[in-house]
Amino acid sequence: MTICHFSTYRLKNSMATSERKKRQIKQREEMILDIARKMLVERGYPGMSMDRLADATEYSKGTIYQHFTCKEDLVLALSIQTMSKREEFFRRASTFQGRTRERIVAVGVAEDLFVRIYPYHFRSEQIVRLTSLRDKVTPLRNETLDACERRCLSTVAEIVRTAVGQGDVVLRDGMTPEDVCFGLWCMTMGAHTLMASEIPLSERGVRDGSKSLRFATKYFLDGMEWTPLMNDVDFGATVVRIREEIFPAETQQVFGGRVAEKSLPSLPRQVSSS
Amino acid sequence: MTICHFSTYRLKNSMATSERKKRQIKQREEMILDIARKMLVERGYPGMSMDRLADATEYSKGTIYQHFTCKEDLVLALSIQTMSKREEFFRRASTFQGRTRERIVAVGVAEDLFVRIYPYHFRSEQIVRLTSLRDKVTPLRNETLDACERRCLSTVAEIVRTAVGQGDVVLRDGMTPEDVCFGLWCMTMGAHTLMASEIPLSERGVRDGSKSLRFATKYFLDGMEWTPLMNDVDFGATVVRIREEIFPAETQQVFGGRVAEKSLPSLPRQVSSS
DNA sequence: TCGAAAAATGACAAATCGTCATTTTGCGAC
DNA sequence: GTCGCAAAATGACGATTTGTCATTTTTCGA
User: Fold this and answer.
1) A182/B222 CB distance under 8 A
2) Three-state SS for A202?
3) Which residue approaches D20 most closely, CA to C1'?
4) Using one digit for the tens of pLDDT, what is the confidence trace for B161-212?
5) In chain A, whose CA is at the least distance from the CA of B173?
6) Stretch(es) of chain B classified as CATH 1.10.357
7) Which fold has domain A80-255?
8) Is A186 in contact with B182 (Cβ distance < 8 A)?
């Protein structure tokens, strides 16, 4: 019995320390990611070297490689962190009380806020999309990101389906709800790619990329005759309402309370690599 | 006098050989670019190493570095080659005899053909856009690409301006012709980014990205009330006419004469890096 | 055939990713 | 306290890759 008790105790104790260890490791991983993210933003993808990261984190390279199988795996981990944030933003946006058309606008507002709060995310998202790394990366991480993206999409698709069900929009030309999502996704992704580009949009005659994107999506949805058409209602007022009701804190953070601000500050640009 | 003649002769001769040299060098540069492009497509950006390229071209690395200041400079040169092709496609498209709305559709058809004929271009375009290399690259090359892109855009902007002039479309919300271009550009770029992604679009519920893109632009322009609305005319027939009248050879090359083909083969995917 | 200028070459330096033998640390047992 | 083992951390090292530059080779007119 005594032995058994001891044994149980030891087991418990051992498990307790093991749990603590896990927490510590998790915490360290987040610390590494924080520093890596900063580096990625400031110095670009090639500028974020594993040696430099090891120096900055004050851990050795070997330790970092215990967390991530390779550099791309690390970038993927960064993407997951922010992608799950985006998922949360989208979910909150979709709860907006209003017509389906307004709920779609809410998702657009969510994306806009998301990009402003996490400007680095888009860059790493592009890197992940561009680099072929399916076979080098931790499978779990791969699936996690995939699932996250899928949930983001299905949040939007669900709104489309609801709209179809309520008769707010009719899908023509054999379009599926997913095709509609694809259209919105394209515009958003393309706009952010161009906005993050080295050549300022202003040199291409575009004053405010975000505003242009908002109007492009507006016209796209109007073209589908998704009612109410945004000519019929006060578009700007809806955006303001969404920001106030769903994202008060984030709006405060980004716009400092100037909810109705029209000409928005442009996104930060990457520092040139050294 | 004699000396003068000799001197003139020598100068002429020297210039002639110099011209020949220049031609040879130019020719070699194109040969290098051809091989580099193949390598870029087959092995991806990291897989196209300068050593391998030197081997494949049967020149030394030093010689290659006499043509290009760095790897990015070479990729930029590749981009320029195809971008000027795109410019030509756009210019031809804009000559389509028809309503302004149809001429915009023609540009869309041009882009679609372009991406199919030069599938590698988009990848290098993204690389150029993602990597900060403004300061490493030959300034001339930088400007050349920039000018090329600008001409592509202004071809489209010109159609928009004509449309406004003819009353085919009214720009609301303070939109400029360039803002309209931006909208179209976003959709196109986003769609191709997503289509070139590792995750097949079919897993996201999108059967045919090109088709979805076509409809997205259609709805976008319909939403702007750019007449004639494409519900009012036979959209598919216009596309076929454009392919037949403006791009017969290219259509043949891509679709093998099946001009009206609806479900198009998906774009080739990058071979995994070695 | 000669010689100078131009061009080609590839060894080399520097940087980077990822590995792994070696060292250090953590922790329970006595 | 200290012993010993397992787990974790370390950084030197191998393999690549980019870009340079002293040296060799070629070109071409005299």
Assistant:
1) no
2) helix
3) B62
4) 999 999 999 999 899 999 999 999 999 999 999 998 888 899 999 999 999 9
5) A215
6) 82-255
7) Tetracycline Repressor; domain 2 (1.10.357)
8) no
